[in-house]
Amino acid sequence: MHSTGTVPQSAPAPAVVPAESPTVPVEDPHGDTGRHARRFGLPVATALVMGNIIGGGIFLLPASIAPFGTVSLVAFVVLTVGAVALALVFGRLAARDPRTGGPYVYAREAFGDFAGFLAAWSYWITTWVSNAALAVAAVGYLDVLIPVQGHRWTACLAALTLQWLPALANFAGTRYVGAVQLVSTVLKFVPLLLVAVGGLFFFDADRLGPFNAGGHSAVGAVSASAALLLFSYLGVESAAVSAGEVKDARRNVGRATVIGTAGAALVYLLGTLSVFGTVPHDRLVTSTAPFSDAVNTMFGGSWGGTAVALAALVSMTGCLNGWTLLSAQTPYAAARDGLFPSAFSRRRRGVPTVGVGVTAVLASLLTTYNYLSGSGKVFEILVLVTTFTATVPYLLAAAAQIFHLVRGEDVDRTRLVRDAVVTAVAAAFSVWLMAGAGYAAVYQGVLFLFVGILVYAVMAARRQRRAA
Questions:
Q1: Residue 276 and residue 73: Cα distance in Å, rounded?
Q2: In angstroms, rounded to a whole number, what is the distance separating the alpha carbons of residues 130 and 341?
Q3: 322 or 115, which is more confident?
């Protein structure tokens, strides 16, 4: 993740389709057009998915799972299967209903307004809390290049700057959002591929360490390491959330989602394997910069730390760019259906600007609170909450696909068994993600959902009053 990722549209946005109506979008005569609003093709949609899945976590993952031994690579494979299954489900749902909003649209169309609101509300919380987390983490890498951590207000200002630069790119229009996302994705993959591919030439099996270093049972070791890796795949929904902004969405959303998820998984797996094989296990367990250590081992010298820090900053900036757009897209879709305040439906140059602004402000307030309180524990719990809140729309999307398969309407019967198996795997993956967040995060996340119920009560009452 956190990448736990979207994209706005240059062409007219599809009109609202009631939850009980057929899922054929109608063109919206008030959609944005112009040179700053532009639909994204398959390459940019794929870059959006990969860029949002792969954030800064990849640079710390090898050291985080090293204490479990190479059995953690098995957990990677298991998680990848679940993430790809979820990606396939999103692709099938987007082909059926290619509107902006992703899980929100699928949940509302299948189960009605309340389920749709829960998906939108949960996903919105995920995006702005994740943005705050990304910005704070990015400051740690920035400190390698420019010392900022010694002064609390300097670090806070740096984090806020890292949040608002992507927000400004979003305000400039989808043309610039796509450009930033594509460039940042390409740039961050240069050092990642250098280690992931180049490291294989320096691979030494003697450095791998024991298969099960933690002393747990094999199943227990896989589950324990998976708990750390679960958060790495948030963002698989990125193309689906902004389906209305993707050219030929019925075809390209599914392709971008699967290609992007598979590409991110390949980088994760190869990068971790290369680091395991280039950095001795006893050193890797205590490393705070495993990719830097791998580069230094491969080529000598001490320039790896600076190079990786720069790559991490590029990676996180791209992540913030994509997540900022994602944070506005779901409220935009919900606002058009009357489930969020109408201000969230305003668009300029293809971007829901009110959603971007509100998200940036909330993330900034949370970031400032983090620095003022001086407590990393509160912030850590909030970050784990995002794992829970992200899985709510994931599970609702999987449930929507189950609903369509059981109902039997608009289902390709030649691939019914395959779709059923894939959807079952995706649903199990979503539940596993939720369990991996931990009891405290689930408790806090449920409280966030209950607050959302109060908001829904107000919005539902206003809708009924207007209808009367």
A1: 10
A2: 22
A3: 115
User: What CA–CA distance (Å, rounded) separates 33 from 421?
Assistant: 41
Q: How far apart are CA 247 and CA 389, in angstroms?
A: 29
Six token digits for residue 196: 């992931």
CB 361 within 8 A of CB 393: no
Q: What is the dihedral of CA 176, 178, 180, 186, to 10 degrees?
A: -150
Average pLDDT of the chain, as a whole number: 77
Residue 10 binned pLDDT confidence (cut-offs 50, 70, 90):
very low
For 85, the token pair is 């299954």
What number is the average pLDDT over the span 399-405? 93
pLDDT tens figures, 21-77 = 333 333 343 344 444 445 667 877 887 788 778 766 677 778 878 888 888 888 888
10 Å CB burial of residue 373 (0-12, 13-18, 19+) is exposed
Q: Which of 224, 261, 221, 234 is nearest to 383 (CA)?
A: 234
CA distance 85 to 110: 20
pTM: 0.75
CB-based contacts of 27-33 (< 8 A; 24+ apart in sequence): 31/347, 32/8, 32/347, 32/348, 32/349, 32/350
